[in-house]
Amino acid sequence: MRFEYGGLKLEPALAERWKVSPDGRVYTFTLRSDVKFHNGSVLTAVDVKYSFDRAKAKGQAAAGYLEFFKEARVVDDYTVQIELTKPTAPFLMMLPRLFIIGRVCLTGKDSGGDLGTAFLQTNSCGTGPYRIENWERGRQIVLTRFNDYWRGWSGRHLSRIVIRNIPELPTARLLLERGDIDIQNYVSLDDIPIVSRNPLIQVENRPGIPATSFRFATHKGPTRNPKVREALTYSVPYDRFIESVMKGGATRLQGPIAQGIPCQDTALPIYKQDLDKAQQLLAEAGYRDGLKLRMDNFNLYPDRRQLALMWQADLKKIGVEFEYKEYDLGTTYALLRDREKGPDIYMMGDYVTYPDPDAYMWRSYHSSQTGEGGLNYGFYNNPEFDRLIEEGRTTLDPAKRCDIYRRAQRTLVNDFVGAWVMQQHTTIFRRSRVKNYRPLPSAFEAYSFYDMYKEER
User: Which long-range contacts (CB under 8 A, 24 or more apart) does 124-128 make?
Assistant: First the structure.
């Protein structure tokens, strides 16, 4: 299954159709009979079973979508059943992130028990429209057309794609302006006014689903007090940051779930900065003479750094000494997972991989998600909230499910678990000759190369 081009609606892909058992635990998929893998073997139900079993055995990446997976059964060559341990409402939404790999392609490719992982670093065993021709680590990947792709090649399509790693944004922009590259997918927002004046380049700036927020340690220190967390919520320079730093590349976030996602509660309050109210709440919490807080952050995101520093300056006005530190990825994660030594505040961007409320709520806020693989670094623990999102996971009726998730969102907001800052846009620069580009909002910075084409100069 896949998401429709540029949207969030599911549509058939390798499976022509599917049905779900009345109890919501067994999914029966009827596969297409004309699908080939890149090595020439034909897709069958055996490959689907192999892919699910392999993902579960690896216990990494895709295994996160298989928490309730019980078994895959081959019914016949083109029919496969997936049985779950309990009904899982977001299961179908997760499936586009579970890639089917050819069993024959990986036979004999195991290296030290890695189930063929090393082989897949430089070889294609999928069914997609393009296969790996060459991969120079850290420099570029070259993809070429797979002639036997099941959707065929009628109409206009790209035949070869070169994906280059160009970390210097000024260099990338220069190459784009010269026509040496066609798409620049990581851009400086400061460049938008400059690039917009070039008639040969289009600026694509569309709402995406990544959600960025400040989150608070709810289990220790000053932020254990809900009134302190409420004060902090009123102290963030939301609008000033979006206007002066993001320059139109984001919109305000209304609660923990991004707009456009099913069950997002549009009735939630949108907090504005009010330093007087923040100072009053701190005084009520017993911090009339101020307090000291620490925030640890990744050293990867200049925009987040600017937001933190803007906030630091504003907090100083109300007597809060705000210590801000940046670390590499590994060090930051280690600090965030440390229940006792972790920071009072951290910034999190929810770059979810499936468009469902569960993707925003479970890993970030359920009390079980404080260890490896979880994102609940604020150690939030509310049994009523846990009960709600557990029920939301297993409720199949869409209306009842949305009611559950709206109650869960209100619980998070009322507990002042975080300060919801912005919903980032997908912003790219592309040469005007690149046609039929649509961002895939269901995945961060993703494209469907098959649907795009390029006009000749």
Answer: 124/38, 125/37, 125/38, 125/39, 125/101, 126/37, 126/38, 126/99, 126/100, 126/101, 126/102, 127/14, 127/35, 127/36, 127/37, 127/38, 127/43, 127/100, 127/102, 128/38, 128/450
Q: Is residue 200 in a domain? A: no
**Residue 247's pLDDT is what?**
85
pLDDT in tens, 226-274: 999 999 999 999 999 999 989 878 999 999 999 989 999 999 999 999 9
288 and 240 housed in the same domain: yes
d(CA 371, CA 436): 42
Residue 444 scores a pLDDT above 60: no
- The string of pLDDT tens digits covering residues 28-46 is 999 999 999 999 999 999 9
Q: Closest Cα to residue 51, out of 4, 95, 112, 111?
A: 95
State the Cα–Cα distance between residues 35 and 216, nearest whole angstrom: 49
> Facing residues of 252 across strands?
422
Same domain, 256 and 390: yes
Residue 17 lies in a domain: yes
Q: What is the CA radius of gyration of the chain?
A: 24
Look up the pTM and report it.
0.89
The sign one gets for the Cα dihedral 252, 431, 4, 82 is negative
Whole-number pLDDT of residue 380: 98
Same domain, 226 and 339: yes
217/352 same-domain check: yes
- pLDDT tens for 279-316 read 999 999 999 999 999 999 998 888 889 999 999 999 99
> Residues near 264 by Cβ (< 8 Å), separated by ≥ 6?
254, 255, 257, 258, 357, 409
For the ranges 35-49, 364-378, 396-410, the lowest mean pLDDT is seen at 364-378
Whether residues 341 and 406 fall in one domain: yes
The 10 Å Cβ neighbour count of residue 300 is 11
Residue 346, number of CB atoms within 10 A of its CB? 23
Cα separation, 22 vs 20, in Å, equals 7
| HEC secondary structure over 15-62 | EEEEEECCCCCEEEEEECCCCECCCCCECCHHHHHHHHHHHHHHCCHH
Domain range holding 98? Answer: 2-106
Q: Are residues 122 and 185 in the same domain?
A: yes
Alpha-helix runs per DSSP H in 59-139:
91-94, 103-106, 117-120
